[in-house]
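FORM 7B - TANDEM STRUCTURE REPORT

SECTION 1: FIRST PROTEIN
SEQUENCE AND TOKENS:
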Amino acid sequence: MATETRTAQGASVPGGSSFSLSDPTVRAIVYQVLVVGAVVLVGWFLISNTLDNLARRSIATGYSFLEREAAFGIGEHLIDYSPKDTYGRAFLVGVLNTLKVSIIGIILATIIGTLVGVARLSSNWLIARLASAYVEIVRNIPPLLQLFFWYALVSDGLPPVRSALNPLPGVFLSQRGLIVPAPSDDPVWKMMGIALVVAVVVTLALRFWAKARQARTGQIFPVGWTGLGLILGLPLVAYIAGGAPVALDMPVLKGFNFAGGMVISPEFFAILTGLTVYTSAFIAEVVRSGIIAVNWGQTEAARALGLPSGPTLRLVILPQALRVIVPPLTSQYLNLTKNSSLALAIGYPDLVSIANTTLNQTGQAIEGVTMIMGSYLSISLSISLFMNWYNKRIALVER
């Protein structure tokens, strides 16, 4: 069978060889195969060498240790935990604590950063200068140093437990943190949580329906007020239907600490405040640059239509600025999530802290480090996927 080869101009010539390194396509495939083979070979060497060294030292390998009893306590946990639980459950507590700090920190940093970024562009000289000073000071202080500052402010600036401040009935403020009354255990709270989730889902569905209806008929549906009514109303209906319990678990001083109530620890306050303040300064610059990127003619056009400054910013400028803001904003969200590992320095039981305790007790450092890496990789990829999806949603569609 006759074969073809290509000339320098790309024309096919019968009778040539079908496999030639002079062909760019063939050469690219060969190089990629060689690179993949080299990576696999290096990976195999590292893994086999590591397993061989561990076997020589009689060090156990594998993740079976996750089923053994942890035998250490954790001060803060979103799910039930005791020292009798397994290492696997302790690790899950650490992941949830990291997610709690990251999610709340992202929300607060976004709000504060947006406000500060808009304030930097204010026509009011004092507000603009204060916002600029906030950004310049916070961005140039290392985050770890900021965590130490906030932790020292709380732990050293507040009185001991027996002299705790009591500004309101049932509310105490001391070196152990802020202790407030908590709702007593009742099935109605689960019902309210389900109602809240249903309200959010219905609101999102209404938003999509309202946009399609407006594009089809030009009529505007009040999604904002309707969604607010659903988000507030459905949990309230569930609360009333569940008997409207009013019993509270009040904190009481027992010995050297408080029993009952809900505690916001100094460690959680320090890590959340430090990460929020630090990241918000960078988000402020991202927002400011995004607003500046919008053509000034858009503002002039909005003013010509009689729109006040507030609606102009909210309805005209920010929607267009989002296309510039979202990509670098994703990086700041990822930085905040990864910086949460600094919680180890102030004693907050996050993912890294609990994993370190686990590997110190079990001696299985490789497994512990891979679990930390896998957890942060999964969280970061989830944030990236969501933000990339949102970025595509707001991107301009060329016709």
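SECTION 2: SECOND PROTEIN
SEQUENCE AND TOKENS:
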Amino acid sequence: MRTKLIIDTDPGVDDAFALTLAALSEDVDLLGVTTVFGNVGLEATTRNARRVLALCQRDDVPVAAGAARPLVHHQPREARTVHGSDGLSGRSGVLPEPVRELERSDAVTLLAELLTSAEEPVTIAPIGPLTNIAALLAAHPHLASKIDRLVIMGGGIARGNTTAAAEFNIWSDPEAAHRVLAGGEVPCVLVPLDLTHRCAVDASWLSALAASGPIGAALHSLIPDYLEHYRRALGFEGIVVHDAVAVAEAIRPGILRTESLPVRVECSFGPARGMTVVDVRRSAQRADTDGANGPFTDVAVDADLDGLREFLLERLIGRRV
């Protein structure tokens, strides 16, 4: 069975891995890619997405640029210290120039067009700030039924990465994340930091990728700044491929184990801004308080970690598993 998929992204090194994963998977119909501000500015994220698709020889996939800033408040800072000056460790120039022109329409328009023309529900994988998705649901509520599910990389149950409480994608536009997760229009799977960090890949995995061929070598060449960051964060030679974990679930539903839990997003200003408040209490306890009515989100809490790493590597080196 082929997955109808759209990716909304802000490349970013792990976004580049995730986009390549989808682009090379034969059981995926990659209908389109939309870009958003995030790890770096919109111009750079759009250029990076188009170059990754060119690397994968996927000039059949339309790309449209979306939101350049959050819905309400300005993004306080980008993630250049993690992803480098251009989002790809300063090495986006090693990727080929895009063949296909950027769509003249904006991201929300392309999303609406792709959903309208789809003959069956489509999975959307938002792996950056949720600004484009919030705008889509607000402007085209009738299209919610055309979305099978949103598989979102974002948030954390017990940790943040941008602040002690907040993960970067949610923190970059908490109001948009609240609109999407609390809206209830579309089933959501949230893939949080707690799990993606456990899925970190090590030096041997990265070496196998680099030795696999031109695409693997190109992806490996994008990681120096990212690797340096995670060398400090993890304490070993490896990286966290957050967004690729989410896209793996989008491609193969159930590769991650999820629990249906109430999730809210903290939108006030203060040390918890951007926090995903995930209610992990037993349902009986929630029923005695204010947590019984949701909104509920399928939160990814576990996986066969070695099996997932194998799935990612095999797909990225061009062998379907």
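SECTION 3: OBSERVATIONS ON SECOND PROTEIN
The longest helix spans residues 42-55.
The chain has a mean pLDDT of 95.

SECTION 4: SIGNATURE
Preparer initials: ____
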